[in-house]
Amino acid sequence: MPAASIKVPLAVKAGVTLAALVSLLGLTEYARFESAYQRQNADPYKVTAQFSRFADVRAAVPATATLGYLSDQPLGGTAGDALFNSAQYVLAPRLLQKDAAENLVLGNFTRQADFAAVGAQSGLHIERNFGNGVVLFRRDGR
Amino acid sequence: MAILWALVAPVLGCLLVYRFSGLKNAHPRWAAWLLVFGAGTCAGVGLASCLFFLMHWAVPGVRVLPMIVEIALLAFAGYEVYRIRTQVRETESTPNVFLLPLAGAAILGLIGATAVMSIVWDANPEGNWDAWSIWNLRARMFTSDGALAQRAWSPVLTGHPEYPLLTSGYIARSWNYAQTPLDNVASAVPIVTSYLFFAALLAMASGGVAALRSRALGLLFGLALLASPNLLAEVPAQYADVPLASFFLGAVVCWLLDEPVLAGVLASLAAWTKDEGLFFLAAFAVFALVFRRARWPRWIAGAIPTTAIVLLIKFGLARGSPSLVGGSSLSKVFAFGRSMQVMAGFVSGFAGMMVDWYHPLLPAIVLAVALRFQNKWKRDVLFPGGISLAMLAGYLGVYLAASNDLSWQLQTSMNRLLVQIWPLLLLTIFMTLRAPESMVTLIEPKQKPVSKRKK
Questions:
Q1: Treating both helix axes as pointing N-terminal to C-terminal, what angle do B188-212 and B215-226 enclose, rounded to 10 degrees?
Q2: What pLDDT sits at residue B71?
Q3: Where does the pLDDT of residue B333 fall: very low under 50, low under 70, confident under 90, or very high at 90 and above?
Q4: Do B97 and A8 touch (CB under 8 A)?
Q5: In this model, does residue B417 exceed pLDDT 90?
Q6: pLDDT tens readout for residues B334-373
């Protein structure tokens, strides 16, 4: 005996097909946009690069430490906050505080400068200069 | 090794959901499997995160305790599933003309979406700003041994110590069990975690609508989510918004499928994921009481354990940390200019979901025109719709009362708030549509008349 056939109204067939096609085309459009965007904006805050930049600090400072913070980029701005947050991320579980009041203070600089003079303004001397703008300060007299 | 550990908890969750919920009995069978996978993944990750937090907090010296408990639970769940394995029966399925093409399109869409995400993972392995300044930062604190782990919720931490800990806790747990060294990039677990929640969201969306309304609508719903640019962009961002969206949708779908305990578990895990989840939990409790009072006690029983943990961290451990609504003022809520600014923010956020000519609402509009809406409004349409509106109203209120600069707040968070409730909004639309299968007619072949033979 021949099998029963199925009749689908044209509007339903067209609607379901079109909805699926529109979805796939939308996904394609997004893929085009996102891949172009990522080509130009890969790791915009250079977070990955901070792992090698702070590798020696991780080795030198115990995991239990709480460090102060000093930078040439002011906190509250995008550049300053990105520098601080990415340093905190890489150095965790060490804690960073947003001032230079601790005994040990992390210097995180974007430009070369007289770091000893910068530290001296906050009563600090250089404990160790790791290079690449990364300096560990210690409070004077401790 | 850490990735393997990240996959253990979803397996545990799937086994527990399979054994102790009725989702395995949903029809069709593929929808049942999707539901078990989606709800199981969410519940498993949530359970593992809660266990890790509780044992790290209560017994910080015994590093392997949560791992032992998890393995014991896994063995128990595996045995229980083995014990009941013959009780699930296959049911005969009716032929569906839409099934194969739509399933093919959905698989194609999933492959495409994953390919796009892999480009982002490659370019930004540590995720977007909040991932490395809040969520994964806390995971790096939390994975430490002994008392150091408590820095994840210590008020001295700069990265929002009062935020709930589901994703951070889960990532920390996977690193901790695998002894992952964190002196280099370790982004695999955060990436896997965010993708697991995305897959779970898709599974619960497709499986839920397929079981509740129609197989074709279920697959089309999954496709519509796969083609939502803002949702796709948030997965590799490694924020907690996609996990939150998964819990929102999962809780509602489980409720509609008459699984109140699991709905309660998932709703409370939303509160363990982000602050917005607490509001969802409260809204859900009210709607559940209004719509199905008889189910409410079982829902509460599912919600209580995780809610207790959330309250412990909110009002106990991280007390004193500043919060978004901490400095809010009621007078701001009634400021007309502020209200207009927030409304404009919502409109521009909705319009901003577009990529070039495409808006993710388009597939739903096409289907609404072609299929039209079902005649009767049912509880299972009003329930997700009501919760979505309540969530929108809640977000509006928080924006109005928030102490932060409103323009900055809208600019940095509106997109993510829409990602959180977008699946629920789409679910509401898809639940109102007429099922394509209901418009199909079966034509029986004409029978030849039997000739009468003359004697």
A1: 150
A2: 96
A3: low
A4: yes
A5: yes
A6: 677 888 999 999 999 999 999 999 999 999 999 999 999 9
**B114: nearest CA partner in chain A:** A31
pLDDT at position A3 is 67
Rounded alpha-carbon distances, angstroms, from residue A101 to A42, A56, A123, A140, B338: 35, 22, 9, 12, 39
Contact A26 B441 (CB under 8 A): no
Q: Which of A16, A55, A92 sits opposite B216 (nearest CB)?
A: A16
* Strand, coil or helix: A71: strand
pLDDT of residue B185: 67
Task: Give domain limits for chain A.
Answer: 8-42, 47-139
Best residue in A28, A30, A39 for a mutation probing chain B (most B CBs within 10 Å): A30
Does the ipTM surpass 0.90? Answer: yes
Number of neighbours of residue B253 by Cβ within 10 angstroms: 29
Q: Give yes or no for residue B88 having a pLDDT over 60.
A: no
Q: What residues of chain A, 53 to 92, have a C-beta less than 8 Å from chain B?
A: 55, 58, 63-64, 66, 81-82, 84-86, 88-89, 92
- Global model pTM greater than 0.90: yes
SS3 of A102, please? coil
Q: What's the mean pLDDT when you consider all of chain B? A: 90
- Write the pLDDT tens digit of every residue in B247-286: 999 999 999 999 999 999 999 999 999 999 999 999 999 9
Inter-chain CB proximity B443 and A6 less than 8 Å:
yes
Per-residue pLDDT tens over the stretch A66-106? 999 999 999 999 999 999 999 999 999 999 999 999 999 99
Residue B350 backbone class (left: φ over 0; alpha: ψ -120 to 50; beta: rest): alpha
Q: Do A26 and B119 touch (CB under 8 A)?
A: no
Q: Which of B307, B106, B279, B298 is nearest to B209 (CA)?
A: B106
Cα separations (Å) of B375 from A117, B209, B378, B379, B434?
Answer: 78, 18, 9, 13, 9
Residues of B whose CB is below 8 A from A3: 445
| Chain B nearest-CA residue for A33 | B355
Cβ-proximal residues to A103 (8 Å cutoff; 6+ apart), any chain: A68, A138, A139, A142
Does the beta-carbon distance from A19 to B363 stay under 8 Å? yes
On the question of a cis peptide bond just before residue A93, with omega within 30 degrees of 0, the verdict is yes
